[in-house]
Amino acid sequence: MTGVVAREEILRQLGAAAPPWDVLVIGGGATGLGAAVEAAARGYRTLLVERSDFVKETSSRSTKLVHGGVRYLEQMNLTLVLDALRERGHMLRNAPHLVHDLSFVVPAYSYLSLPYYGIGLKVYEGLSGKLSLGRSELLSRQETIERLPGVNDDHLRGGILYHDGQFDDARYAIALLRTFQDLGGTAINYVDVTGLIEHGGKITGVEAHDREDGAVFAVQAKAVINACGVHAEEILSLNGGPRSSFLVVSQGSHFVLPRTFLPGNTALMVPRTADGRVLFAIPWMGVLLVGTTDVPVDTTSPEPRALPEEKQFLRDHIARYLGRAPRPEEILSVWSGLRPLVRKSGVETSKLSRDHTVLVSPSGMITVTGGKWTTYRRMGQDAIDRAAQVRGLPKRPSPTLDLKLHGWTSDATAANSAWESVYGSDLPALRALSARSPGLDALLHPRLPFRQREVVWAARYEMARTVEDILARRTRALFLDARAAIEAAPIVADILARELRRGDGWKVNDLRSFQETAKGYLYRD
After folding, report:
1. Residue 264 above 80 pLDDT?
2. How far apart are CA 450 and CA 263, in angstroms?
3. So what's the pLDDT on residue 2?
4. Which of 38-42, 109-113, 274-278 has the highest mean pLDDT?
5. CB contact at 8 A, 444 and 251
6. Looking at residue 357, what is its pLDDT?
7. How far is CA 505 from CA 223, 280, 512, in A?
């Protein structure tokens, strides 16, 4: 496969005395991957380093929506909505194997809410222009029930149908990674930035540490991009000064339920909950995803856990809109993510804008943070524009608005399932693994759609290094059904150990590490 370089070769390149990279991106989430693709697409020699796995944290824990943001329209942030709607349209065009249209219905429980939300969503549709995904329309009470079977129909007056986008966040990120590699970029995970290198008062590179074998090396770069999301201030603190306080961190949590709670293919959207958030119940890969909350938190963690008040909030709202609260055994997975929000004095997190910010420190390091998944490309463009300006890179226009991502295909009929479609044009090569080794066609678990061949593929072509990488992000097993993922883990560990040429000791330790992490996705009161 093109663009795939062995990890050992990448580490050898980083350890060698080589010319400075044009751009070095710290952080392998949506923002960092977007900036890296932007830089490589402009022809800059680009390196991306990630201290754990790509999109391990915030960017794999979204509500799986590509949208303009209905609540930002209500806040009259038209610039953000217009930008996000334009980006939504281009994400669908550039990655149709990963992004698709999804119908939503807003149930109306008062006659006044029908025209209020109906007009608002008609404006939302109009702002999409030529990139609109479909017309919004008012629904009768009966039409709403037909679209949302199982919705609470007590005092239901009708509903409003509209369209937005849905995607698989982690798989989209892997497509960005592969696109970056196809463009000649170099990326590596499990490499931690431990220090910044300065010369003449300017940042000229980073000190890095390979978390797998302990190697330490210095990497020189003309421009350093800090794209670490909620951890952006940690990188800024390496610059020698005190940590800034321009970020507010908000936590959002989700429940995953059986589709019996809301059968059908239409998502439910509640425009305003008790904490000011928009709440969604959306069909996703055979389950129902319900979220999200909005709770300010003081600390960050690679594995945030849903707080008791978040669990209660989700139970209450599921009961209110879907007829009953789920029993503990019906909650297939529960997971949380952290959002970096740019601080505004006295403003609640639910009302903070998802606009992004690009900062340049006196040492010349560029920090990009804030924003939302849908605007990742625009964030990358703005960051690289600024880097070229302040670090003297050759001025080149952005080519990414219409850049087709790795796996792009016009043949949507090749996949037999929604899961298989995420591989796009790589699907025949993936299936060929099973043709050569029929045992790889076996499912990892009866309740999961993933096959053993996907483990091999992820190890060979998608830089997966651990059982968690496979079950959380290369497949979505842990997010779909935590119990099934735990039960499938030994099979994954066996396959991955063979692919990575690891011994029994590594397999035992990695399996234990995954099982400890996965326990946090099991629902507990």
Report:
1. yes
2. 22
3. 46
4. 38-42
5. no
6. 87
7. 40, 43, 11
| Cβ proximity of 280 and 290 under 8 Å | yes
| Global confidence as pTM | 0.95
Token digits for 72? 């930002």
- Assess whether the previous peptide bond of 292 is cis (omega < 30° from 0): yes
As a whole number of angstroms, the distance between CA 226 and CA 247 comes to: 14
User: No. of H helices and E strands in the chain?
Assistant: 16, 18
Each residue's pLDDT tens digit, 472-492: 999 999 999 999 999 999 999
CA distances from 520 to 324, 448, 483 (A): 24, 19, 11
**Tokens found for residue 55:** 């999109």
312 contacts: CB under 8 Å, gap ≥ 6: none
Q: Is 226 helix (H, G, I), strand (E, B) or coil?
A: strand
Q: Are strands 46-50 and 186-189 parallel, antiparallel or unpaired?
A: parallel
CB-count burial class (<10 Å; 0-12, 13-18, 19+) for 372: buried
SS3 category, 288 = strand
| Domains of the chain: residue spans and CATH | 7-58+171-242+352-391 (3.50.50.60), 96-165+247-345 (3.30.9.10), 420-519 (1.10.8.870)
Q: Which amino acid is at 288?
A: L
In sequence order, what are the residues at sequence separation of 6 or more whose Cβ sits closer than 8 angstroms to the Cβ of residue 441? Answer: 434, 451, 452, 453
